[in-house]
Amino acid sequence: MNSLSDGPRAEAITVVLVEDDAPTLWRLQDALAKAGYQVRAAGTLAEARACLAQGAPKVLLTDLQLPDGHGVDLIRETRQRFPDTEIMVISILGDEESVISAITVGATGYLLKDAFPTDIAATVRDLVAGHSPISASIARFIVRRTQSTPEPPPGPVLNTAKLTPREIDILWGIAKGFSYAEIASHLGLSRQTVPGHIKSIYRKLEVHTRGEAVFEAVQQGLIKL
Amino acid sequence: MNDHGDDVQPELPGRARRRLRSSRLIQYLLLQAVIAVAGVAVLLQSLPGPPAQYQVTAFQLTEAGAERPVTLPYFSPLRNAMNDPPRFQGHFVRPAGETSQAWSVFLPRFTNGVEVTVNDVVILDSRRDPAANRPDRNTPAIAVIPASVLRDGDNAISIRLFIWGPISGFLDRIWVGPDEALRPTYNLRTLVFVTLPVVFSSWQAILAVILGIMWVMRRHEPAYGVLAAAMAVGVGQAFLQTPMGETPFSRLNVILISSAPIESALVLVFALLLSGWKWQRYAWIIFIPGIALALAGLFGNQALVRALFLILAVPMVGISLLIMAVVTARSALQRQNVASFLLGCAVTIMLTCWIVDLLSVFQMMPNRIFTARLSYSAMLVAIGAGLTWRFARALNQVDGFAGRLVTQVREAEEKLKASFAREEERARAAALARERTRLMRDLHDGLGGQLVSIVALSERGNGSAGIGDAARAALKDLRLVIDSMDDIGGDLMLALGSWRERAMAQLRPHDIALDWRAVTAQGLPVHPELRPWHVIQIVRLLDEAVTNAVKHAEARRITVRIETLAGADGVERGCITVEDDGKGFEIASDGGAAGAAKTARGLRNMRSRAARCGAELELSSCAQGTRKGTRVRLTLPHRFPDSDGG
């Protein structure tokens, strides 16, 4: 494995990469390794758990469809065991079904599998720096869920009750393709605060406390009290 | 000036209102005065009598043992002397030549009863006629003198006047003459004083039934019930017989005498309720005179009842009429209520008649025709007219209400239709979203993954960049197709938001900057008619413009301007401009590029896509100078076409 050769910047950044398709795994691994990240690769859920057993990584990148399980479980476990680990889901289309289901268990962003190697590295760098990327279509999806409709639209269930009107305005701006600077000036915010709001949106969408998880489970009839 | 005006102005409407109110009051009072004067004038008219030659007025009166000559009409003081009635003795002459004609004695008016004797033969005893026994009814009497009794020349006539109160005795002038000369006057009096009251009493009975039904159906309006009770009491008073003589049955019948105060009390309560007054417990005092009179009738003797009648019943009727006059006047003036107005006029008529009757009782009028009971018919007419007026008005209100209801129902129906259409639209959007989700899952599991795999493989090997580009383009298109299927609610900005991300990802490896400028704050107008295929055409057109700039123009910067322009016709149209700073090209006369065939095909594609969406495409390119580069300007239609224009 490539390690520690690109200078002190990436020295401590460890990435656990979980992807079952071998060529895609190589591609992502190469892109990250070239940027100087220390990558631990896994092709299955079991291998990923073994990697995580070695210690907390800074970043977890995981596919959702794995041969021996679902990536959502891995994300949930990681979020509980290592609250400081940044988690991203790897998606082919950046579709809301995979991204939102990952967000609700603790992911704070997503990466397209066919992204250019430089973009892959930049996205992970932004994530580590505290910026959570959010796409126009995901923003659109979240905003749509905040509008109450008698019949819930198809797709994953999302609790948007905690979002503030300002956060919804920011999501609208993103959905319409406005840049952070434009959104900030429209809403009278400082440009630097927009990524923080997005991070906060992700956190609010996460079903993150044990109590809520139990509540959800009861709601879904999984647990009988 | 203004300050002063502000002070004065609020007073003006009040003053005007007061002036209006007082002028209305004066008008009302004047009208009532006219009615009263007209009533008095009518009452002073004496009814036509038979020929004066048959009138007999000179009599010798034997009263309480004394004998003296009197001239009719004669008022006799009230005495409880049934066994020793005043006796009038007179004479009349029948000419010898008129034996073929039947002769009659005609007594137009007497209180309370008469016994007529001609030549010592009794020919009439009015006490056998129950109607005649009522002093308030002005019943006339006529009796044919049997031919055997009548003599040619001088005949003796004797009349005994029975007085049992409650008022003093009275005997009007009498006529003795041929029956055919007297009969018409008698018939006229019978019509006015006997038949007409029966007709009115029948009308009262009908009113009692109508009001009773009204009250049963509308219990929350007790006024109708009270009036129905009053009408029923009146009907009972009119039709129940009052036998003479002291029997237990007649004792019960004496209660009837209390009907006048009870009926007037009930009508008074009705008038009060009609004017909006609420029933109070103390109001029972209104009924005390009637009840006292009824109890006296049950437990006292007739003399007591008759004495009480004058003290209780007559004033009770008058007081009721006075209160009603005030109440109905107020109600008629304040509410402009036709029913109250009619009632007020009727009360005035009754009050006038009551006063005249009272004067008559105290012998201040030359004759004794009681009209109060008769004038009650005015009240009955007013009640009937008022009821009909209220009924018609209620019907009109129902019609108006029904009309309003029809309008409201129609409006509600339209709203419902609109909401149904919205619901359908929503259901359609939901179905589309479900379809999209399904399609995406299918693509995600299959095609997408394989394409990514190809990209990855082509990057590892060398010289297979072509595969990578193709696969990458396929992935991009896949995302576009999926994206365009999302319900964006007609807001093209939402589609452009995703397109921007894809375009930036495409441009980044080529080191081309994407300058995104939403010039107007809301971006583009919302188009509810926007369909997925419109979105695909527009996004592909923009893709084409960006791809041209990347592949052929060697551009360093691409600017996308999004704005809403107000046209000359005032219609807002969206406009998207893609500009690069590349080397540009010559545009041929046919609108295509003069240079490379590939570019020409690209431009032709863009034009056809714009045409299919009803959008206008403007191409301009410049190879040199400060305005170097290509500009693609897409002006969106005001309304996207329903069908594929291409």
UniProtKB/TrEMBL annotation, chain A:
Domain Response regulatory: 14-128
One Pfam family it belongs to: GerE
One example GO MF annotation: DNA binding
Position of the signal peptide: none
Residues with 4-aspartylphosphate modification: D63
Keyword entries, A-Z: DNA-binding, Phosphoprotein, Transcription, Transcription regulation
Gene3D superfamilies assigned to the protein according to its UniProt record, in alphabetical order: 3.40.50.2300, Winged helix-like DNA-binding domain superfamily/Winged helix DNA-binding domain
InterPro entries linked to this entry: CheY-like_superfamily, Sig_transdc_resp-reg_C-effctor, Sig_transdc_resp-reg_receiver, Tscrpt_reg_LuxR_C, WalR-like, WH-like_DNA-bd_sf
Biological process annotations from GO: phosphorelay signal transduction system; regulation of DNA-templated transcription
Annotated HTH luxR-type domain residues: 156-221
UniProt keyword annotation of Transmembrane helix present: no
Coiled-coil spans in chain: none
Source species, domain of life: Bacteria
TM region positions: none
PROSITE patterns attached to this UniProt entry: HTH_LUXR_1 (PS00622), HTH_LUXR_2 (PS50043), RESPONSE_REGULATORY (PS50110)
Protein name: DNA-binding response regulator
Organism, scientific name: Bradyrhizobium icense
From TrEMBL, chain B:
Domain of life: Bacteria
Keyword vocabulary terms for this entry: Kinase, Membrane, Transferase, Transmembrane, Transmembrane helix, Two-component regulatory system
Chain ranges of the Histidine kinase/HSP90-like ATPase domain: 533-640
Ranges annotated as spanning the membrane: 25-44, 191-216, 223-240, 252-275, 282-301, 307-329, 341-362, 374-392
Protein name as catalogued: Histidine kinase
UniProt GO molecular function: kinase activity
The keyword Methyltransferase is annotated on this UniProt entry: no
Keyword Plastid recorded: no
Biological process (GO), any one: phosphorelay signal transduction system
InterPro entries: HATPase_C_sf (IPR036890), HATPase_dom (IPR003594), Sensor_HK_TwoCompSys (IPR050482)
Record organism: Bradyrhizobium icense
